[in-house]
Design brief:
The structure holds two protein chains of two kinds. By secondary structure, chain A is α+β, with helices and mostly antiparallel strands. Chain A is built from two helices and three strands; from the N terminus they run E-E-H-E-H. Chain A has a three-stranded antiparallel β-sheet, covered by helices on one side. Chain A is elongated. The relative contact order of chain A is 0.18. By secondary structure, chain B is mainly α. Chain B starts with 16 loop residues before the first helix and ends with a helix. Classes of the chains: A alpha+beta, B mainly alpha. At the A-B interface, helix 1 of A face helix 4, helix 7 and helix 10 of B. The structure holds fe (ii) ion (FE2) (3 copies). One fe (ii) ion binds next to helix 6 and helix 7 of chain B.
Chain lengths: 94, 333
Amino acid sequence: MSKETPLWEVFIRPRNGLSHKHCGSLHAADEIMALNAARDTYTRRGEGLSIWVVPSKAIFASDPDQIEENFEPGVDKVYRHPTFYEIPEEVGHM
Amino acid sequence: MYSQGLIGADSATTETEEFLAKFQARIDREEKIEPNDAMPAGYRKTLVRQIGQHAHSEIVGMLPEGNWITRAPSLRRKAALLAKVQDEGGHGLYLYSAAETLGVTREQMTEELLSGKAKYSSIFNYPTPTWADIGTIGWLVDGAAIMNQIPLCRCSYGPYARAMIRVCKEESFHQRQGYEAVMKLCQGTEEQKQMAQDAFNRWWWPSLMMFGPHDADSSHSEQSMKWKIKRFSNDELRQKFIDATVPQAEYLGLTVPDPDLKWNPEKNNGKGGYDHGEIDWDEFWRVVKGHGQMNRDRIKARNKAWDEGAWVRDAALAHAEKRAARQQKQAAE
Ligand SMILES: [Fe+2]
Ligand SMILES: [Fe+2]
Ligand SMILES: [Fe+2]
C-alpha cells in the first residue's frame, strides 16, 4: 500500500440539547467524505442530529498508566461534595 | 455533505420576517440553538454579553473569598474555601468557552475585563472584612447565584445550558459550606454571633440586588424571556430567594435587616411569601457604575494577575515552539 487514507474520530449529538458523544472512527480522504461516511455508518437508525469529525491525529489522550496520579486526588477530597456539610433538615433543601 | 468549521463560521444573517419567525418557532418548540445554527444578530449579541459577564463574575468572584484562604480558622474551612475558589475559576472557564462558541475571542473578553469596560456582578465590589463574610457569601451570594443559574440550565442556547448544568452541580457544596460556617458562628460565643449578624446585615441587600432591577425597569428582560435565554423575571427569582432564605436566617437566630419584611399569606397564588422593603436602587446603580467600595481594587487585582502572569504565558509558548521544532527535526532525520 502506498498512501494511507487518514483516520477520523466521529462524534454524534444524539438528541437536541445534548453534547456530541464519541461513537467511533473511520477512514476518509477529507472532512467532507468523512462526514458522509459517518452519516452512512453511524446514523442509519436515527442515532443523531449532528456529526463532528476530528482528525484522529489531532486528539491527544492522557496516559492510562497515570490513572491513579491523575484521578485519585479527585476522589479523596470529600469536602468538595455537598453531603460533607451538615445542614439541618428544618432549613429546607440547599 | 456540506461541512462547517465550528467557530468563526460565517454568522451573518439576513433577518427577514420569515427568518425571525422560523427562529422563534424553534425556540417555542424548546429546540436548543447550537453554535452552527443561524441565529438573529441580537440573540448572539445578548448571549455574548450575558455569558461574558457571567464568566467575568466567576473570575472576579474569586477575589473576595481568596482574600481569606490563608486566614481560614481551621484546616476544614481552609480546604473547603480553597476548593470553592478553585471551582469558581473552573466556572469562569466553562462560561468563557461557551461564549467563544458564539465567535467572540477569549482575548477580547479578557481585554474588556481588564480595561474595565466589561461588567460583572456588582456583589463582588463589596469588601470581606471578617471571616463571617466568607460563610455569608457562600450562603447568600452562592444561594442567589443558584436561584439564577438553575433556570439557565434550560436556556435555549445549548452550550450555555450545558455549561450551567455543570456549574449547578458544583454550586450546592458552595452554599452548604457557607451556611455551615455561619451556623458554627451562630452557635458560638456572643461575639461570634454578632460577627455573623453584622455580615448578614451587610450582605442581605446586595444579595437581593443580584437579581437585577425590578421587572418594570429591566431593559433587556422581555426579549430574553421571549428567546428563552431567561425563564423567570428578576422579581420572580428575587421572591423565590427571599422565601427560601428567610427561614434559614430564622433557624440561625439571625435578624433580617429589613423592618418591612413580613409574611403575606396571599402571595405566590395563596401559597404565601414574604413582602419586603424598598431596595436602594441608587446604591445598586452607584456600584454598577464603578463607585462601589472595591471596584477599583478588583480590576487592579485582575490586571496585576494578568501582568505578572505574562512571563508564564510567554514561557509556555516558547517551550511549545521549541518542542515542536525538536520534533520536526527528529522527524526529518
Ligand atoms: Fe460559580
Ligand atoms: Fe455563578
Ligand atoms: Fe459558587
